[in-house]
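User: I'll paste a sequence; please echo it back and then give the predicted structure.

Assistant: Echoing your sequence first, then the prediction.
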Amino acid sequence: MTLFPLFLGLLIPFLGTIAGSTFVFFMKDEIPPRLQKTLLGFASGVMVAASVWSLLLPSIGFMEHADGIMQVLPAAIGFVAGMAFLLFIDDITPHLHVGAGTPEGPKSHLSRTAMLALAVTIHNLPEGMAVGVVLAGALSGETDITTTAALAMSIGIAIQNIPEGAIVSMPMRAAGNSHGKSFAIGCLSGIVEPIGAIIVILLTSVLTPAMPYLLAFAAGAMMYVVIEELIPEASQGAHSNLSTVGFAGGFVLMMVLDVVLG
């Protein structure tokens, strides 16, 4: 992988967050409930498909020469570890669920804006890890992950980040912040993704032997976000069927991207 595709792979997801954050300039102060349900479902579908095709299957493929249970054991260990890591972070950090207003985690005197920012950081952490580990796999040349497959992962996360940016910036505006501040917070909510990805890439030479575990770890972390944050929010109240439609659309889109470009 040359430097230009690597730069694109790091930049594209962040551009998705920026694009979504611009919604605050031309929409009302709150996202219409039907649209929010659809967007949450769509984001869930993208993340589930990315976890399977971009992370878990390459993790298992990395061990294709192993025998019996050893072919899938690293993927299983990594997946459970990713879920456990996000569970731990979620438990010790005061935050708001994405799209909700009920604080969770330890008691804190942080403002609603700060807690929502923490929630989004938790949400984006596994996405940045996922992009970084896939790009690292393509860089190493020791996996079946191609440059186009890595870029497909980045594009999928970017598409998922568009509604995510809106889901962050719009409540910030509704809470009384200016359009500019709401936009800036929405954009900054995605900065953890390229930072996390760069850290993973810089450690590529050290992490290559652990690649099957890392791929599955990122998948587990992403699935935790889907199960704990996105699906519950999308399923509450009326119009939950729209989240199902959105999930189907996001899942199919990410699957097609990964298979066609990978």
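The mean pLDDT is 83. The chain has eleven helices and two strands.
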